[in-house]
Structures are given as structure tokens and as C-alpha cells.
Amino acid sequence: MDEAKGQAGYEAASACFVAGVEARWLELRERMEWMLKPKRFIHSLAVADESVAMGRRFGGDLARLALAGLVHDGAKGYGDEELLALGEAEGLFADPAQRENLSLLHGPAAAWLAKREWGIDDPAILEAVALHTTGEAGMSLEAGIVFMADLIEPGREYAGVDVLRRLCREDLQAAMIEAIEQTFVYLKRVGLPLHQGTNRCLEWLRTERGITWKAKN
Predict the structure, then answer these.
(1) What average pLDDT does this structure show over 83-103?
(2) How confident is the model at residue 3 (pLDDT cuts 50, 70, 90)?
(3) Which of 128, 162, 167, 197 could make an SS bond with 143 (beta carbons 3.0 to 4.6 A apart)?
(4) CA angle 128, 73, 5 (to 5 degrees)
(5) Is 4 in a helix, a strand, or coil?
(6) What whole-number distance in Å separates Cα of residue 89 and Cα of residue 76?
(7) What is the mean pLDDT of the chain?
(8) pLDDT by residue (tens digit) across 32-49?
(9) Angle, nearest 10°, between helix axes 172-190 and 141-152?
(10) CA angle, corner 34, sides to 31 and 39, nearest 5?
(11) What CA–CA distance (Å, rounded) separates 78 from 116?
(12) CB 107 within 8 A of CB 131
């Protein structure tokens, strides 16, 4: 772990100090460190931290954001055969694109694991984990924050990320719209199918543009 921290240059600085979840954070942090490769584990810490920072900016529930960010990639420790088997056994396939691109299944799989094996029963956390890759119409503020935190955490480097980071300082909905539009361009370029939840999310964001986006109760 020390080597991984040195390579990535990152350790969670604020998410682990969110009031009320310190013990749960340490428990789940240990589980994620055991389950995930070092680089993925560091990414998970960074997403938790970024989610908390954005929650302070936009009003999301910080405890939920810290935990959702930490476990959002929990299913990344599964190989394709294990992920496929879990998806089939538990009915996690909700869109044809998931069968052509199994990476689209890791969000719902992580939410399933969080509920069944990691003792997380908060619907807002489970939603944020399940939708962090695809999005969906009507998703909560917390889910939208984790969706974007996954894309802009400090370790991310790709064309367009600086635009997303700037937008995330100003307007979460505009950032999500831009992120999805970037995703459409990428999917077309590499010939991968579109998850229809992402399309529904974009249409919903465009329709609801400018509303006050509230945290879940």
C-alpha cells in the first residue's frame, strides 16, 4: 500500500473525517484495499474525497458521498467471468449494452455487493454506486456528484477533463451534460454501444436544466 500511495501521490484527506461515518469508513476502506488493485484502490479514495468536496459545494449529504465514493468500484476486483456470472445469477443486466461492454455492469454489481455483503442499506448510497458509470433520468444529487467525481478526480488524465473540472466548480448539471456528450463521441469512435440509461439521463438533464437539484432525504 505504501508503494501504491507513493506512485499515485494520493491519500484521502477529507472523506475519512466526515462526521458519523469514521468507523464505517475504516471498515470499508480496509475491505476495498483488500479487494482492489492498488491503483484502483487509490482511485476509490480519490473519488470519495472529490465527492465530499463537491458535496460541500453543491449541498449533497457528505456521509453518503464519502461511502459511495469509496465503494463505487468495489466490483472491479471481479474478472469478466465472475462479473458475468454475478450479473446472470442476480438479474443485474438491464440494458443490451451491458452484454457487449461488461464494464457497464460493474456499477450495479458493486451496488449489489454493497447491499448483500458489505452491510450498506441506504438507498441513496446504493443508487449512487449503481449509476456512477451510466447515469439515469431522475438520479439524485448524490448520484450526480459521484458520477462526476469519478470522472474528474486528480488522477484522471484525458482530453476534455479540464473542461469538466472547470464546470464542476460552477454547475453540476452542465458538467454532466458535457461529460455525457463526451462519452457519446468516445463510444462512437471506439464502436461501443450506448447504455440507454445514459441517453435518458442526458434528455432529463436538458429538460430539467436550471432547476434546484436537491439532496435525497
Answers:
(1) 94
(2) very low
(3) 128
(4) 125
(5) helix
(6) 18
(7) 90
(8) 999 999 999 999 999 999
(9) 60
(10) 110
(11) 16
(12) yes
Contact 109, 77 (CB under 8 A): no
Phi-psi region of 91 (alpha: psi -120 to 50; beta: other; left: phi over 0): left
How many C-beta atoms surround the C-beta of residue 201 within 10 A?
25
> At residue 64, does pLDDT exceed 60?
yes
Cell numbers that stand for 185 in this block: 463521441
- Cα 89 to Cα 5, 74, 106, 110: the distances in Å are 36, 18, 14, 14
Q: Summarize pLDDT for 180-215 with one digit per residue, the tens.
A: 999 999 999 999 999 999 999 999 999 887 666 655
SS3 readout for 41-89: HHHHHHHHHHHHHHHHHHCCCHHHHHHHHHHCCHHHHCCHHHHHHHHHH
